[in-house]
Amino acid sequence: MKKLLLVLISLHLAFASFAKEGMWIPLLLEKYNIEEMQEMGFRLTAEDIYSINQASMKDAVMIFGGGCTGELISDQGLIITNHHCGYSAIQSHSTIENDYLTNGFWAMSKEEELPNPGLSVTFLKYMEDVTDSVLVGVEESMSMKKREKVIDENISKIKERATKDNHYTATIKPFFHGNQYFLFVNEVYKDVRLVGAPPSAIGKFGGDTDNWMWPRHTGDFSVFRIYADENNEPAEYSEENKPFIPKKHFPVSLKGIEEGDFTMVFGYPGSTDQYVPSYHLKMLTEKVYPELIEIRTHKLNIMDKYMEQDPGVRIKYAAKNARVSNSWKRWRGEIRGLDILNAREKKKAYQEKLMQWVNKNSDRKAHYGQILNEYKDLYEEFGDVKLARDLLLEVIYRNGVEVAEVASMFRPLLKLYETEEDPGEEKISQAKEEVKKKINDFFKDYYQPIDKEVTADILSLYSQSVNPEFLPDVYRRINEKFNNDFQAYTEKLFRKTLFADKTSALALLEGFSERSIKKVRKDPAWKLYKTFMETYRDQLYPLYNSLRQKNDSLNRIYMKAQMEFESDKVFYPDANFTLRVGYGKVKGYEARDAIEYEHLTTIEGIMEKDNPEIYDYRVPEKLKTLYRQKDYGRYEVDGTVPVCFLATNHTTGGNSGSPVVNAEGHLIGVNFDRAWEGVMSDLMFNPEQCRNISLDIRYALFIIDKFAGAGYLLDEMTIIE
Ligand code: ARG
Ligand code: ASP
């Protein structure tokens, strides 16, 4: 009997220690997840996470800016999120004299906190299943266009109703590829001030070398505060505003973590594709990703070369380099991960089983019998178009031809003259002011030799990589006048253009009049920008959009088929930048043969990586001193300080900054990344290797208190010792 019990317990443990795939809907936890969560160790209820009747965790979680998550950690509106999420706010306050990015910044009182125009945070008030109302009047026989029109009209009406007589905003998002719809009613706070950020040598320690990797030692956090009007409601920035008093904030735990502990991540995962057919994986891994990786490899090599030569250039291109490098590295990891998982074969086997089931019944056959053939046809065309579209955007945006970006800044000004008989002084000077700001911002971080080399290189690459029908007109000119010598074409462009230099761009702007329009139109950088834009607008975008719509429609049908086929399984919807719950356990992983990773890193690892020669690994002197003196205060554990930890929560881009809580719902970490071997989790989750990386909250507190001397901030937190 005892033996049997042991077997049962270990079976249970084996099962419970497993990673839990999925990004779950907060409103439906009670129905689908809470029992399992509690079995895994969670001590709270579904109502504690999401409730409209009482204060719950959801009241302390927000969309931070445009693509991250943040959470409240005091009853005075204090927020913690990632350093890389606060990056542009921190950068915007940085100057040569006050380089907060490099040196860090800490407000020593509320008066010193820095406002950030344009930065907002968004709280979810409530969500609601509105599928029936969205699909009123929709019939299966409708054309795609008609269906979309009816749905759009219904959505407008529902949103209007939800935001009538209140200051909320509303969005409706499709779930399960349009088989279900949810309404989200939100409250947006617009006065968000920077409270503090560690120096980049802590907040971005390891840089792009360590990005997407374990073992990790990045102190990826920054601290902000929400301000509200005298009624505690959202308001534009004003000196009169007061710190926001939330209904709920996360207690911060100093108790630490052990391998096997329950963890939950609560945030805004951006987008995943878990239910696509094998053709989609083939398109990404064989056609699209390799070319995107190639073009970015070229960009990065050129940037790196100049950045290594000149520290000034390094600062200018740090953010650009990070942006280009981030997805570049992830795509490579995804290809590798899918390959090792044998993902396409797995999908194919699943598709076969599903089709056998479909073909057993004439009704199902009528509905789903052709789905895979239709996918196959679609993807044959989709791949080329998606590749051309993605590459085109790589050329004129995304740190491609930067001088084309400068040219495009003049577009609003041109439009003003073109669309209005006499735009009037006021409108013109306002438009000029806006362009001027953009130009000044841009040239702060511009280095012409990089742009020139990238331009010649990627123009040539683009022409080699896409179907000739997607070549903009400029290629004809390069052929006729320059005999396809991209170098020569680029040399001439940079010699002639007014947009590659701040002085000439500003001079053009200062004296801008109707006559200047001709000058802009004749400028070679403008011409380049324009021909690419035209190819995009007239050719690629319409084509891509219609194929994507067709794809959406097939996805809806295929999703429905999958859910009927596995009618006992509880499906989770793909991420769509709505609030979700991921749960799992603190856990290391086996990365490769004989490489077994532990779940926790410590300050010892920072000192091991310390290398003044390598930019990414320069440890600040102050941190070294604290280390030498073992001056760790109450953040010390076994003679060291914990830094980052791994867990099995299913996360993706957008989850950065998400609260990571323990079984009691106390904050133990801030999510910021995933480990390299598991980044294919957007397409297929592998419980053995998919891990999210979190900053241990104790390291954040240690840095705030001991390193920055801003310990007064801890007084407003609820610390659990
Ligand atoms: N990989 C993380 C995420 O996708 C962090 C990105 C920012 N850091 C960087 N070195 N690029 O957002
Ligand atoms: N680093 C990502 C973010 O910024 C998170 C991830 O992709 O795991 O959202």
Automatic annotation (TrEMBL):
Molecular-function GO term, any one: serine-type aminopeptidase activity
Domain of life: Bacteria
GO biological process: peptide catabolic process; proteolysis
EC number of this enzyme: 3.4.14.-
InterPro entries from the UniProt entry: Pep_S46, Peptidase_S1_PA, Peptidase_S1_PA_chymotrypsin
Signal peptide annotation: 1-19
Keywords: Aminopeptidase, Hydrolase, Protease, Serine protease, Signal
Family assignment from sequence similarity: Belongs to the peptidase S46 family.
Known role: Catalyzes the removal of dipeptides from the N-terminus of oligopeptides.
Name of this protein: Dipeptidyl-peptidase
Organism per entry: Marinilabilia rubra
Origin organism lineage: Bacteria, Pseudomonadati, Bacteroidota, Bacteroidia, Marinilabiliales
